[in-house]
Write a structure and sequence with these properties.
It is a multi-pass membrane protein. The protein has 196 residues and is mainly alpha-helical. It has eight helices and three strands; from the N terminus they run ααααβββαααα.
């Protein structure tokens, strides 16, 4: 039996289905998934699997602070493709994009440095950063090892709150990120074609 022939979509990158799927695929870059994964990797050993001594409490607090800082700052990272097709990574500032891997051999016009002012910080960037930070802190405090380390004396009501809060806050932040999208394309963003 012959397979059905699928006609290609006209202007596939600009088609609404492509844009919707690209937005859904890149939602992982807006949510603090990488930071949560890194935290969950180190949290069991830093907190001694929830059996915390004073040193474990300090190590866990430092881990939460470092991951929270990284989560907040990663909301301001962006990606830029210059006229030669080279991919540049940077962080948004009030003046424009500060590029990490800027090649000093290319001129300002060739690398698009004069156009980097369009990547300035905006209000929506701070909204996304604070929502990501809050979401990470909710997930970090909802971790069972962190709860055993810092909140071992709380009652069953608080345990129920800690268990259900990450799911609800994740759904709410996903809704907010979908309603208030950002044009910021962080490091590792999958769909860079819409940002060239």
């Amino acid at each position: 039996m012959a397979e059905p022939c699928l006609a290609p979509l006209k202007n596939a990158p600009n088609h609404p289905v492509h844009q919707t799927l690209a937005s859904a695929a890149n939602l992982a870059n807006l949510l603090p998934t990488g930071t949560v994964l890194a935290f969950q990797t180190f949290a069991p050993s830093f907190s001694n699997n929830g059996v915390c001594h004073l040193s474990n409490k300090y190590l866990t607090a430092i881990l939460i602070a470092v991951c929270a800082t990284f989560c907040f700052l990663s909301s301001f990272t962006d990606t830029f493709v210059d006229s030669t097709g080279k991919l540049h990574y940077g962080i948004a500032t009030f003046r424009g994009l500060y590029i990490f891997n800027f090649d000093s051999e290319c001129g300002n016009d060739q690398c698009g440095k004069k156009d980097l002012e369009r990547f300035k910080l905006r209000f929506v960037d701070f909204v996304h950063a604070f929502v990501s930070l809050l979401l990470f802190l909710i997930f970090a405090l909802g971790d069972s090892d962190v709860q055993s380390c810092y909140f071992s004396e709380v009652g069953t009501e608080w345990n129920s709150l800690f268990m259900n809060l990450p799911l609800g806050s994740g759904a709410l932040s996903t809704f907010l990120f979908t309603i208030f999208p950002t044009t910021r394309r962080g490091i590792g963003y999958a769909d860079i074609s819409a940002h060239i």
